[in-house]
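Lab notebook page, bench 4
Experiment: in silico fold of construct C2
Operator: M.H.
Input chain length: 324 residues
Purpose: comparison with the prior construct
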Amino acid sequence: METVTIGKALNLGLRRALEDDPKVILMGEDIGRLGGVFRITDGLQKDFGDDRVIDTPLAESGIVGTAVGLCLRGYRPVLEIQFDGFVYPAYDQIVSQVAKMHYRSRGQVRVPIVIRIPYGGGIGAVEHHSESPEAYFAHTAGLKVVTCASPDDAYWMIQQAIASDDPIIFFEPKRRYWEKGPVDTDTEPYPLHAARVARPGTDATVVAYGPMVRTALDAATAAAEEGRELEVIDLRSISPLDMAPVYESVRKTGRLVVVHEAPSNVGVGAEIAARVTEQCFYSLEAPVLRVCGFNVPYPAARVEEDFLPDLDRVLDAVDRSFGW
């Protein structure tokens, strides 16, 4: 077991996937010689060659379209979209082709593509560099959507996604790339599409994913100082959603706060609130509350901390849930 950053864990996971399967190919803008803008693929082109770690033109639609053709020839392409807001030129390819080809072919064709997307704010960047577009893809039948929140999950989840025969959108919390944690390379990995209790508690449930898991854990630590034990659940998978641990927790605590950076309107939090209300209505002591980004375009960097959910906003929602 070693302690590494989330960025380094992703690098190690990609390296192992390249070693284990010669059909794995990495593609993206500046991922080869430069190692990517966040250096996630640093050193991989040098070790595996430019026919397996490929610098592409600045054309996201072309990157995804080329990857579909590679899948039809038996390859497993792993694509990097440089920033979250750059994925939109490829949206038609992803939604119209990648998501539907298996269904369209009546199960005869597999499209084992992994599309890596650094997402979320917190790095002082502007729109197109700080967005959270996960709901677009979670809404699309035929795609699976996951996100890691720790180095250990980063290391294992990227390998599991690459090994999957399904197309997977792999969101990486860019503001957490430099946070460190242990990685156990010899353990049995947690199931890719399973939620996990990140911190047990008894008084209220806080559900988060990706960059907001750390915020939720910090809020739980602060709440404990005031005598409230929050149970924090890391969703890990956005589509499909593993709701069983959420239901179990809400039936125990009676309260739920959902946290994500994306705007609240028609977001993942709304779906979770609806499902919990359907399944746990008589266990709820208060309405399900959401702590999200605001329903405006991503703001200028100097005010982004006012836009992003933080510890105080999470604790305020917890307090409100006890006020009902």
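Observations: The chain has a mean pLDDT of 96. The longest strand covers residues 256-263.
Next step: discuss at group meeting.
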